[in-house]
Amino acid sequence: MKSPDLRYKLVLLGSLYLSQGLPFGFMTQTVPVLLRAEGASLTTIGDTSILMAPWLLKVLWAPLVDGWGSERFGRRRSWIVPLQGLTVLLLAGLALAPPTDVVSVLLAATFVTALLASTQDIATDGLAVSLLSERERGLGNGVQVAAYRQGMVIGGGALLVVFARSGWSASFATMAGLMALATVPILLHREAPAPRATPGESVRGLLA
Length: 208
Known about the structure:
Elements: H1 4-37, H2 42-47, H3 53-57, H4 62-67, H5 77-96, H6 102-131, H7 137-166, H8 168-188, H9 199-207
């Protein structure tokens, strides 16, 4: 039987990785379908993969995320909570104001969401390392992968069904609501102080 403490950690981390998978699944699986429905060419849809570049380039600003943060609010929380909040606001804004130029808005939303989620991933990975003991990390990694994949399934499959049945506003409102719910555990979490690494130390560790 898992200890309550371990269950708490896994629920917390699972909610964060789920919240990364939701927009990633939507933007990589649902958005291409929507673009095609709007008449975008296959070439244009294929080119949208470059909008996920923040996931490849996040190593460039990872030292900043790893080295800076509020000790009072929590080094990782001070990144994760605002980034989650901005994602919720972006999705809610899309729900409240359906665009006239759907293609341009979807492309812009895909890039901004990728930037927010990839940066949140840096802080979440750091939180996982500091939160889990060495013995717990194998199970934690399993939860990470499973929660992320579940988010992708919901964002890339279930929300497409919502879009087909109820339209633009309902699908983005649903995703904003799910993201808001997934933010609750980290809002309630009280992060213990962690050793601070300066950005320079993080870069040297990366290149070592």
